[in-house]
Amino acid sequence: MLDREGYRPNVGIILLNHQNEVWWGKRVREHSWQFPQGGIKHGETPEQAMYRELEEEVGLRAEHVKIIGRTRDWLRYDVPDHFIKREVRGHYRGQKQIWFLLRMVGRDCDVNLRVSDHPEFDAWRWHDYWVPMDVVIEFKRDVYLKALQELSRFLAKPGQGAQRRSRERTGSKATAAADQASDAEALPAGVAGQENR
Prior knowledge:
alpha+beta; 8 strands
């Protein structure tokens, strides 16, 4: 399924742990690392495709993650001709992607790279949010950087989680109001209350 400009609709997934490190997968039998991604099938929404790809490539289901944010619009990259099958050259240009930022609420042991008969990854690790672009295949680097930059606005400020945990233990009405105020500050204008949409 290509759009009129020759781009295949696709989703990209940036999965965070509680330290705001990102899930980084090593492609099967290659020395390149990447985020999970995959095509949107006919009739699927980007969110449905994201959950399907997450399970197929990483083995995680919807209950293992929470949606933190997504890109506002499609991010595109062109695929060099030597990576394109001969029969679709001239029609296929590359991918257009909606990127999702997810928070892992499951455990590391929930990850299963062998769910599919054709796994995408043979190893994985947690990495600092600003992953090194030199290990990403060259034609995807610009889109990765754009996705990381746009979605970084959803990251919690350092130390915010520790403050909230200590306040939650007190359980007073005053601290609950302070939590709501700090939550509103952490999200950009117009996003408060929309994290799960």
